[in-house]
Amino acid sequence: LLEHNLSPGSLSQKVFDERPLSFYILLKEALSGLEFYEQKKIAVMTLSRDIRERSGATTDDLDGIVNYSRNIEGVELGILFYVDKDIEVKVGFRSKKLDVSVLAGRLNGGGHAKAAGCRLQGNFETVKNRVMTEARQMLRELPD
């Protein structure tokens, strides 16, 4: 990098930190509706296709938003619900300690231990209730 007069700091910032304005518009919407459950151990954000389209964002701009819920002090499980269609909800899970691939697997999804997700059919309230039931159960299984 140095031989080609490229700054490692600038390159790192461009690759890992820089986001389009539409990402921050989505993040603002997600954070404005932030909800907490189970003594603030679960943080939940919700976005809709309508909000995404109005912001000018793409589905790629959704990447990383769920991390903000997980990064809150005391939160064990961060969840992002993305209502893609009237009968389809995409759900992202992030955690510091929980194996969220197990949670996603219970909901016919998949992923990695600390980052996973699923796609569920049904109206938002039905999907949210199902996911939250499984999430609460997973928290109960967490050793103290």
How is this structure best described in words?
The chain has helices at 8-17, 21-32, 49-55, 65-70, 100-106, 124-140; strands spanning 35-37, 42-48, 77-85, 88-95, 110-111, 115-121. It is of the alpha+beta class and 144 residues long. The protein has a single domain (21-140), classed as Diaminopimelate Epimerase, Chain A, domain 1. It has a six-stranded mixed beta sheet, with helices on both faces. The chain is globular, with a radius of gyration of 17 Å. It starts with 7 loop residues before the first helix and ends with a helix.
Key traits:
144 residues; Diaminopimelate Epimerase, Chain A, domain 1; 6 strands
SSE order and pairing:
Blueprint: H1 8-17, H2 21-32, E1 35-37, E2 42-48, H3 49-55, H4 65-70, E3 77-85, E4 88-95, H5 100-106, E5 110-111, E6 115-121, H6 124-140
Parallel strand pairs: 2-3
Antiparallel strand pairs: 1-2, 3-4, 4-6, 5-6
Task: Summarize this structure briefly.
The protein has helices at residues 8-17, 21-32, 49-55, 65-70, 100-106, 124-140; strands at residues 35-37, 42-48, 77-85, 88-95, 110-111, 115-121.
* CATH C-level name: Alpha Beta
Q: What is the CATH architecture descriptor?
A: Roll
How many DSSP-defined strands? 6
Helix % is 40-55%
Shape: globular
Strand content: 25-35%
Count of discrete domains:
1
Remind me, CATH topology?
Answer: Diaminopimelate Epimerase, Chain A, domain 1
By oligomeric state, this entry counts as single chain
Number of helices: 6
Largest sheet: 6 strands, mixed
**Poorly predicted ranges:** none
